[in-house]
Design a protein that fits this description.
With about 270 residues, the chain is of the alpha/beta class. Helix content is about 45%, strand content about 20%. It has an 8-stranded mixed sheet with strand order 1-6-5-4-7-8-10-9, sandwiched between helices. The protein has a two-stranded antiparallel ribbon with strand order 2-3. Helix 7 runs antiparallel to helix 8. The structure holds S-adenosylmethionine (SAM).
C-alpha cells in the first residue's frame, strides 16, 4: 500500500476535529482485519492506512469496481431516507461526500449536513470535490470516529453510514453512538456490503472479488493489498439478520432491510422513538 497523504492537494479550509475520545480496548483483545486476526488497537491503524492509500483514486475505483452501480445503491438510500427540507443530517464515514452532496440538496438552506469521517485524506478529497461542485460551504466537515461521535445527544433527524460500518472496530459502540446522536423520531440508514441471497450469484461474486478486484487495484491504483482487504472485510461483515439484531440491541426499533443486487449490498434502516 502506498501512503498518499503527502500527495493530496492542500486543504481549502479547516476541518473540525471531533472531541470525543474513543474508549481504549483492553490490551490483548483481538478482532479481524479482513482475514487477519489483529489486536483491537491495531485495526484502526490498518484501516487508516488503507484509506490514506486509496483516497486519491477512491471515486474512480468505486465506479470501475461496481460498474457505476454504487450510484444506484446510494440513490435508493436517499429515496428511503425520507429526508425533508430543514432537517439535520449526519453522514458518518462519509468519505468523498456522495451522500452529503445529495442530502445538502434535499435539506436546503435551512437544513444542516455534516460529513464526518475518521480519515483526513478521505475528508480532504471529499471537501475538494464538494468545493468543485459549489456545495462545500454548505456542508460541515468533521473528523470523527463513529464509535464515539462528538455531537450532543439528539442532534440529527437522519444518520447514514455507507460502506463504512464494516471498517469500524467496535460496531456495537458505533451503533449505540449513532442512536444517541439521533433525535427521537430520527432514523439510521446503514448501506453496506452483505451476503448474496442467490447461490449462483455468490459464486460469480466470489471469483470476481478475490481475483479481479485485487488485480484492478494493482493495475489502476498500484495497490492490490487494499482491494484484497476490501474483499475480505466484506466476507467478515455480519450478514443481514445479524446486523439487524445488532441494531435492535443498540436500541433501534422497527428495523428492516432491503437486499440490493441480490444481497451483494443491503440497506438497513432503524428508528429511534
Ligand atoms: N461513505 C463513502 C461512500 O459510500 O463512498 C465512503 C465509504 S469508504 C469505503 C469507508 C469510509 O469509512 C472511509 O472514508 C473511512 O475512512 C471511513 N471509516 C473507517 N472507519 C471509521 C470510523 N471508525 N469512523 C468513521 N469513519 C470511518
Amino acid at each position: 500500500m502506498t501512503d498518499r497523504r503527502s500527495s493530496l492537494p492542500p486543504a481549502n479550509g479547516p476541518l473540525a476535529s471531533g472531541e470525543a475520545v474513543p474508549a481504549r480496548p483492553a490490551a490483548g483483545e483481538t478482532t479481524h482485519f479482513g482475514y487477519q486476526t489483529v489486536r483491537k488497537e491495531e485495526k484502526a491503524e490498518k484501516v487508516a492506512e488503507v484509506f490514506h492509500s486509496v483516497a486519491a483514486k477512491y471515486d474512480m475505483m468505486n465506479d470501475l469496481m461496481s460498474l457505476g452501480i454504487h450510484r444506484l445503491w446510494k440513490r435508493f438510500t436517499i429515496e428511503m431516507s425520507g429526508v425533508r427540507p430543514g432537517q439535520q443530517v449526519l453522514d458518518i464515514a462519509g468519505g468523498t461526500g456522495d451522500l452529503a452532496r445529495a442530502f445538502q440538496k434535499e435539506v436546503g438552506g435551512n437544513g444542516r449536513v455534516v460529513l464526518a469521517d475518521i480519515n483526513a485524506s478521505m475528508l480532504a478529497v471529499g471537501r475538494d470535490k464538494l468545493l468543485d461542485v459549489g456545495v462545500a460551504g454548505q456542508v460541515e466537515f468533521v473528523q470523527a470516529n463513529a464509535e464515539c461521535l462528538p455531537f450532543a445527544p439528539g442532534s440529527f433527524d437522519l444518520i447514514t453510514i455507507a460502506f463504512g460500518l464494516r471498517n469500524v472496530t467496535d460496531k456495537d459502540a458505533a451503533l449505540r453512538s449513532m442512536y444517541q446522536s439521533l433525535k427521537p423520531g430520527g432514523r439510521l440508514l446503514v448501506l453496506e456490503f452483505s451476503k448474496p441471497v442467490i447461490e449462483p450469484l455468490a459464486k460469480v461474486y466470489d471469483a470476481y472479488s478475490f481475483s479481479l478486484l485485487p488485480l484492478m487495484g494493482k493495475l489502476v491504483a498500484n495497490d492490490a493489498e487494499s482491494y484484497r482487504y476490501l474483499a475480505e472485510s466484506i466476507r467478515m461483515h455480519p450478514d443481514q439478520e445479524t446486523l439487524k439484531g445488532m441494531m435492535q440491541n443498540a436500541g433501534f426499533e422497527r428495523c428492516d432491510y432491503h437486499n440490493l443486487t441480490g444481497g451483494i449490498v443491503a440497506l438497513h434502516r432503524g428508528f429511534k422513538f
